[in-house]
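Support request, priority: normal
Reporter: lab tech (M.K.)
Component: structure prediction queue

Hi team, I submitted a job for Putative salivary lipocalin from Ixodes ricinus yesterday, and the status page still shows it as pending. I've pasted the exact input below so you can check whether something in the sequence is tripping the parser. The sequence length should be 180 residues. Please let me know if I need to resubmit or if it's stuck on your end.
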Amino acid sequence: MMKTLFLAFLLSGYALCSEEQETSEPEPVWKKTKYSDMQNISRLILMPDMGTRHYVYEGNSDSDYMLNTTYPFHCGAMLWQGIENDTRNAQRESKNITGQTFIENYGRWVNLKPMKDTSANVSTWMEVRDYAERNYKCEVWRYANPDTQNKTTVCELLHEYVCPNNITIYSKPGCYKKQK
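Reply from support: The job had stalled in the queue. We restarted it manually and it finished. Here are the results:
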C-alpha cells in the first residue's frame, strides 16, 4: 500500500513537468507539442528598446528563414537596431559550433514584420534568453528537462560567461532552477 502511494506521488510530480498530450486533430506545424515550451521570437520581441540584445539557445534552425541556411544556428544573439515602416531591423549574430569549439562568428541583417511575415512555413520558434545588463539577470530557455547528470551545454557555458551573477534556467513550463 505504501509503495503504491509513493509511486502515485512520484508520478503526480512528473506529470506537472511533462508535456501536454497531443490532440487527435492535426495541428499546424508551429503548434506542435514539442514547441510548447519555446518562445516565439516574433511574439516575444514586438517593441524592443533600441539595441536590446536577446541570446538565442537552439530552435528550429532548419526552418529558420532569418538565417542563411548554409550556416546552422546553434547559439547566438539578436540585436535590434530600430523600427522603420513597421519593420524591425535586426542583426542576428551567431557562432557555429563544431564539437565543443566555436569555429566562426558571423552577423546577418534581417528585416522582420513580426506576426505578419509570410515568408516562412513555420513560425520562428526558438529558446530565448533576455540579457538585461543593468540588473545582471539572465534567462536560458531549454527545450528539454536536464538529464539526470545535468550536463552543461556549450551554449549554456557561453551564457554563464556573459551573465555570471544570476542565471535562471527554464525547462518545461513551471519547472525551473535558479543558479547564483
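The longest strand covers residues 87-98. The chain has a mean pLDDT of 47. Let us know if anything else looks off. Ticket resolved.
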